[in-house]
Amino acid sequence: MLLLSSTALTLLVAAASISLVGATIDPLSWDEAYTKAEIIVSKMTVEQKVSITTGVGWQNGLCVGNTYPTTNPDFPALCLQDAPLGIRLANNVTSGVAGINAAASFDKKAIRARANYMGKEFRGKGAHVQLGPAMNFMRSPLSGRGWESGGEDPYLIGVLASETIKGIQEQGVIATAKHFLLNEQEMNRHLSSSDVDARTLHEIYLWPFARSVEAGVGSIMCSYNLANGTYACENDYLLNTVLKGELGFKGFIHSDWGATYSTAESANGGLDMTMPGDITMGSGGSFFGKNLTDAVKANQVSEDRTTDMAMRIVATWFKMKQDEGFPEVSLNSFDLENSPYVNVQEDHNILAREIASASNVLLKNVKNTLPIDPTKTKKISIIGSDAAVDPSTLNCRNHACTGGTLAQGWGSGTAYFSYLIDPLTGLTEAFGDNVQVQTSLNDWDLKEAAETAKDSDYAFVFSNSNSGEEADVAGNMGDRNNISLWHNGDNLIKAVADANKNTIVVIHSVGPVLMPWIDHPNIKAVLWPGLPGQESGYSLADIVTGKVNPSGRLPYTIAKKVEDYGAGASISKDLVIPYQEKLLVGYKWFDHAKIEPLFPFGYGLSYTKFNYSQLKVKVNASYGDNKKVVNDATVEASLSIRNGGPVEGAEIVQAYLSFPSSAGSPPKQLRGFEKILLQKGEKGVVEFKFGKTELSIYDAETESWVIPSGQFKLHIGASSRDIRKVAKFTL
Ligand code: NOJ
């Protein structure tokens, strides 16, 4: 067995104590920000108020989205820029892990640190608004943009949202929570209506946005689709009643690019800013601008409404202290070659590498095949086109192409790679000069693959599966056509496994794939780095050689066959999409239907072992008549975790709750997780606190959140299907 060297140990500890980058700002409270905004907005004419709500039109400015400035009173043009994983359409930026990987780390600190360096980079380029985080759901594993967000569980996406927003805004950059709401597929995204009942809406799809508002998010992007028959960006119920009413959102709502379809309906429906400004992208004119001013004059929209719109925008700007010396815009999104040289990367590669390894999920590891000691290795083979960068596809426009190693999906959620360390480079460097590395990068030449694999100590075989936004890549129009590996992956893996008894499979994928080869006796290990970004190869090598002990967990269920996903088994082509599965999204469906997944939600192995013991639960609640809880009950739980294995490592302890049967809730739902780093033999305590948010269900009749009375069950485990301790409590 390989023991970690002392340098290796230092690196691993560093990974677990990821810290925030550089100076951070402390955003103003909304009250303070509104007081300041009032001074400016009270001096604005209707035209001025309207102009700051209106984008200048597609490709008419330096950023992906730009607003008009005002003078006397002065308010600057705002720059809104993609993407959730880094700065899009710019050079000299860090292009790190995708949102789905941030979620797979199940590591709040790492998520915050990632957001922090991203915020710093956006600020460095003068972008006022980062168009992220994305928080749509992997309602189906096929959904094209699922990888931009955090998977299939609202609690996990909620944590991703909250930590990301705080991290970005600590750098004085406005975060955008998107896409609001029910925009779970690419197919017919401008045309289809996602129809959902009020309980599902609140408990699943709204959840991450509620956490975003609590985190102080500055802006929210409404989506292209209709929700229950009305366009999201003019949906009075969603924007006014729910977002600004129930959730008390004080920032501004702007449209997705071309998701405004009207003037008065949108303004009255709650939209505060139209993006990129023109009626349809590139067409000129605007639903806002002069049309909105005219609508005010015609009494179709009140002047108060335009005041509210302007107040929301100006207050958000003050909240992030952008009035205190915010850098000039140095982007030139549509003329990259003529953009000024501003390098914002600093040493963010270190964090990008740590987060990439922290999000790598070890799916299979027969007889501790991993980690590998390079000093005891003579020859390795590296097989598959996914192992190496293909310079011709590395930075194709919006990454909407395929070829070479996969490190992010395609579409507006991408950022160009200043460089991409591919697995071939990462592994070759890590194994060093004394280990012979032979390669076969052609996925279709199975004979060559087998020959190459045959007599090496370990054969690493790589494959991938990609998806993205809108554009057609290899016949996939954003959403995936299927969940099989691309580029002959299954045959390649089988050919290599037939030839080498120490085969290690590495998959770069946007989401679940089928694994018909999983039980092949020669496949000794399977690693799932997902979408690791620019530090792909280094972060992989850190895991392979044991410098970092894997602790990533699956943020989605990997099924044995696609039909097992139920409602998610296909992408609907219909223009009305009823979310009939209701609350049973992801693992909740698998639990309910008693379907055995191939790898469950929350799953991931480690090089060490953890023992769970001494689960204790304490209930703080008082009861009125009918034994109903009358305060905001809190339930506290604690347990001991011991690292009983051979090396230091971090465990992701997951807490799932079953609600009283009268609640009609899914069998169990994630309501907490903690990452704990323990030395070999060390014992630590993990604590959870469940409050009103975690203990309630949404009661559609009374339109309120209520804690159901009866017996709850707390399941503590290492995955949704590896429950180690259970305790009951009654409320
Ligand atoms: C459309 C995408 O849906 C959105 O996520 C993105 O921010 C805008 N385009 C701007 O590129």
TrEMBL record:
<comment type="function">
    <text>Beta-glucosidases are one of a number of cellulolytic enzymes involved in the degradation of cellulosic biomass. Catalyzes the last step releasing glucose from the inhibitory cellobiose.</text>
</comment>
<dbReference type="Pfam" id="PF00933">
    <property type="entry name" value="Glyco_hydro_3"/>
</dbReference>
<feature type="signal peptide">
    <location>
        <begin position="1"/>
        <end position="23"/>
    </location>
</feature>
<protein>
    <recommendedName>
        <fullName>Probable beta-glucosidase G</fullName>
        <ecNumber>3.2.1.21</ecNumber>
    </recommendedName>
</protein>
<keyword id="KW-0732">Signal</keyword>
<dbReference type="InterPro" id="IPR036962">
    <property type="entry name" value="Glyco_hydro_3_N_sf"/>
</dbReference>
<dbReference type="InterPro" id="IPR002772">
    <property type="entry name" value="Glyco_hydro_3_C"/>
</dbReference>
<dbReference type="InterPro" id="IPR036881">
    <property type="entry name" value="Glyco_hydro_3_C_sf"/>
</dbReference>
<dbReference type="InterPro" id="IPR050288">
    <property type="entry name" value="Cellulose_deg_GH3"/>
</dbReference>
<feature type="domain" description="Fibronectin type III-like">
    <location>
        <begin position="651"/>
        <end position="720"/>
    </location>
</feature>
<comment type="similarity">
    <text>Belongs to the glycosyl hydrolase 3 family.</text>
</comment>
<keyword id="KW-0326">Glycosidase</keyword>
<dbReference type="Pfam" id="PF14310">
    <property type="entry name" value="Fn3-like"/>
</dbReference>
<dbReference type="InterPro" id="IPR013783">
    <property type="entry name" value="Ig-like_fold"/>
</dbReference>
<keyword id="KW-0378">Hydrolase</keyword>
<dbReference type="InterPro" id="IPR017853">
    <property type="entry name" value="GH"/>
</dbReference>
<dbReference type="Pfam" id="PF01915">
    <property type="entry name" value="Glyco_hydro_3_C"/>
</dbReference>
<keyword id="KW-0964">Secreted</keyword>
<dbReference type="InterPro" id="IPR026891">
    <property type="entry name" value="Fn3-like"/>
</dbReference>
<dbReference type="InterPro" id="IPR001764">
    <property type="entry name" value="Glyco_hydro_3_N"/>
</dbReference>
